[in-house]
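Protocol step 4 of 6: structure prediction from sequence.
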Amino acid sequence: MKAIINGKIVLKNQVLENKVLVFDNKIIDICDKAPKDAEIIDAKENLVTAGFISPHIHGINGFDTEDASVEALNSMSEYLLTTGVTSWCPTLGTVEIEKIDEILNAVRQAQKENKGAKIIGLHLEGIFLSKEKRGAHREDWLKLPDADIVIKNKDIIKLVICAPELEGATDFIKAVTKEGVKVALGHSNATYEQTKAGIDAGATDATHLFNATSPLSHREPGLPGAVLTDNRIYAEMISDKFHIHPALYDFFYNLKKDKLIIITDSIRPAGMPDGTYEQNGFTVTKKGVECRLPDGTIAGSVINLNTGINNVAKNSKIPLYEVVNAATINTATMLNVNDKIGSLDIGKAADIVICDNDFNIIKVFKDGE
């Protein structure tokens, strides 16, 4: 049994001080005094939060989900744990259809080995995307929505992206959500009406809103307008201060509240020096927080999630606990794993982060260890 003292405990609706967080492999209690037999961890007035959850991350520290390698996935999991991420979804961009099974099997094995951050399941971003809004995804590898690909792998695919304007999209969304797979709308040039049809069919997430989507206009609200005004759907936000201007963080929160999810969408060069890297069949160049294809197309982000959380906390008026929620319980609820992770509720996994006020990581516990 362990007890964290002298911390600012960030719960879902408040920040507690002068309390003690008691846990073993699960959260046991939040009380006034540490049990006599507990191992004491002094937080030294720093923040104590639930472990962060990263639902949209392709690669980091030189590795990528597309590598189809258990070793690469384990290396990413171990690195992510040092950034406060205790659970994540390896995210697959567009690859040759023949390679998907190999990648899925690698994710299955890495999930079993459970080294570093816990793998919730695969996030299948590639394949069912709009050609016009494909971003850094190869057009020749795109396909129309095919539910069979997803359903036969529903044991490991947790989330799949679909552009709602594609032929067969609504039937696809209905079919895969019926099997328990979550659907996100994104990489899409959809109209407001097409997006609403996707939400009506069962889509519950919107991929990196405003990036690789139809624009928001007063005459044609497009996908962003539909997502921002419908409380049935979550909205992902890349908070690297480049993909979305920080002035819009409050705008996002004011419209989405507990449906806001902070993501990184990071790729292989994240955590690496500036330079040129290979990514999903493209050459990408990292310079600072920007990563681009040779033609200037943005190719994902290169930040860690704790940095993204701090960017939102420091550049908005959003309450601290709500900022943390956007990287913990909101994500867990969207992925339907909030009964196990995502908050410091009694009985949940003891996935805990101790960090300073700038979200620099001091200590991380995964299942209490």
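Step 5 (inspection) to follow. The first strand starts at residue 2 and ends at 5.
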